[in-house]
Every structure is written in C-alpha cells, then in structure tokens.
Amino acid sequence: MKSLKLVIGCCGVIFLLGACSGSDGKVKVVEVEKEVVVVQQIKQVEKVEVPVIFPVTAGSVNHSQVTTRPYFLVEGLDDGELKKRLQACSEGPFYKTDFSIAHRGAPLQYPEHTKESYEAAVRMGAGIVECDVTFTQDKELVCRHSQCDLHTTTNILATDLAAKCTTPFVPANIESQTPAQAKCCTSDITLAEFKSLKGKMDASDPMATSVAQYLKGTPSWRTDLYASQGTLLTHAQSIQLFQSLGVKMTPELKSPNVDMPFDGFTQADYAQKMIDEYKAANVPPSHVWPQSFNLKDVTYWLESEPEFAKQAVYLDGRYDDPTFDIANEKTWQPSMQALLDAGVKIIAPPLWMLVTEGADEQIVPSKYALAAKEAGLDMIAWTLERSGPLAGGGDWYYQSIADITDKDSDQLKLLHVLAEDVGVIGVFSDWPGTTTYYASCMGFAASI
User: Global pTM?
Assistant: First the structure.
C-alpha cells in the first residue's frame, strides 16, 4: 500500500512525501524532490482616493419647524406673485439658513436670552443666534440685552438679591400717578448670584404697588406660557450651547451702564474678553459675527483680532443723533466710504432705515440702503417680528413705510424687498420661523 502527499515548500518547490510499509511492517517515509512550476494569479486591490461632490438638496441639511405663524402671514398677503411663490412651498422643505438670525433667541414667545429661547430659535431654522454680552460684579460675561434690565427680564425682585439692586423696588403712587421704580444690574451681583435667577418675559407694570404686580405686564400679543423656566446663561455657556446645536454666533458687546474702567476693567479688556471666550472654545472666526453700536469696539477688533473682525458688524444707531437725517447723506458721519476705509465691511441699521415709500405705494430701497450698497458694504437688518399687530402703520420699526403698512402680512412684503432689492445678507427676527420660511422658499443657501 502506498500513499502520496503534496507538501508546498518555499521558492516554488513541491515535495512528494511517499509513505510505504517495509518488511518489518513499520511505515517508512521516503522523500522525493521534484521541481514543479506553479502559476498563481494574485489579485491586488489598490485604494484610490477620489474627491466626490454630493449635491445637497435644500431640505436635506436640516428639517426646521417653522411653526404655523408664517402660514398665517402668507395667507394674509394680497393676491399676487409673492403670495403665489410663498404658498407654492408651503410643504417645505424648510431648513437652517444664515439669512435667519435669531434676535435674543425667540422672544416673541420665550424669555429672551434663555436656553429655552435659543433652542426654540434653532428649531425654527436660525443659522445664527445672538447673545447680547454684558458683565457681572466680578467681571464675568453673561447674556443680557442690557446691563441693567434684570428687574424686567428676571425674577430678581422676588428674591433676596433685590436688596442688592441699584434701585430696589419702589411702589407706584396712584394718587400722584408716579410710576413704580426699580433698577437691577448684572454689575450689582456676582456670577454665582446671576446663575440663581430665572428669566421672564421682558415686561413690567409701571403702576404696580407690589413686586408681584410689577413683574407682570407682558403685552397681550406676547405670552407667559413659556416663561416658567427661563434658564439664564453665561456668555461661555451660550457658546457651548450653540456649538452643540450646530449654529453660528453673533455676540453684541453691550454698552456698559457703569463708568469704565470698572474696578480696573477697561473697555478694551471687555471687548477682548468677549473674543477670548470664542478662542478658548475653539470656535472658528468664520462662525462669529461680533457686533457693537460702539464703532470704537469694532475698530479695536479690527486692530487686535483681525480674523474675528472680518465679520465684525457695526450696528448703526446714529438715528439717535439729532443732527442725523436719513434723507441727507451729508449728515451721515462717518460716511459710508469712511466706514469702509476704516475696515468695516458689514453695517446693521434698523428695518426702517433701509426702505421708504416709492411710487404706487410700493416699498423700495432707501437712499441710505443704496449708498451702503454702492460703497460695497454688506447689510443686516433688525428686527422683524418684534412689533405688535401692524394695523394702523406699525411701530418704530416701520416708521418710514407707516402710510403703506396696515396688516401683519406686510412684513413679508418688507422682507422680500430687503432680500431682493436692498440685498441684505441676513435679518434679525424675534420669531425666526418667519425668516426661515421665506429664505427656504426662495432657495437661499443652507447653513452648513
């Protein structure tokens, strides 16, 4: 009996091992060497990296919940091309866009500058969210519209911290019709004390005779339904929240209500500290639009933080200057060209400064808007959805078009002119769902 076994050796040599039985009955192994040519196909797979661009449809970036309000406004428009266009995309998709800028969150219904307000704004598709920045007694940065608004935007008067207010609560005198008084500032309290407060809708009853009555006063067109859990945030916490929500940021350095330097804290220290908190959180400068009404803050950033200053926004508050005339370019000091020469690239005036009434009762760009565009300045407008019902001409924000404003839906007409004719790059809103609906419908770029 004999059997053979193939054994593959190295270098392509195959050994034949023969096993046979000897005369003693023991098995002997006989090794027979034989060279055999082996042909073997080897399949080699190489990984080649090829850049591929995937087209992103508008709605696939983020599905935003614009709420029912935009639908109400669209239905109220006069019949015409704009109404048809906005109705045609009623089923979306609606997506996050940098054109939609959340003004203090979503304060039409949520307490401003609170976690809840910010989260609501992001759900509505705001691509950029605002934290107004001020500081506490221990010089820590927090989100508040004004350094001294705690008496109307928080519950401080109902806490033991009321005793620390610049002006503790003084009841109204009904007989003399003297309004109630109170003034509570972030600079009155420490950061730890600030964190203990709760946010509320910004309102008060000026003729209140008690703290409980004073803390009320929310306008009928706003609501207190979501004011029970207003979580206040530091500036650093707002950055962390915005990062987690995947949105960009526009901090406004608020004018201090205290003399500067404050306990050695200079205006430059203040402006620098705000930027430093973005750097500490590794936020790309391209995701930040620092803003201020103080042109010196903007020029400080241009000199000291040029990367973050590329998108610095000069908030134009010159309307408060008695010499300023919106119709007279000579009164705009500095001029549009001077602002550009100083390094300013973005200017942000209120809604009314960018439009005026044209022929046939149409909204058209103002002389101011045309001059800014001609100079090469980008523009951001503020603030849509901040007003109450617009019947009868609207309020301060609509003063240049009051004669042709008579219903809430007119703000969509205004928004369309700002986007198409003025060419603004973004609009602040107290209810970002409206600007998101419009921008998504018009095919504006998604925020990525």
Answer: 0.87
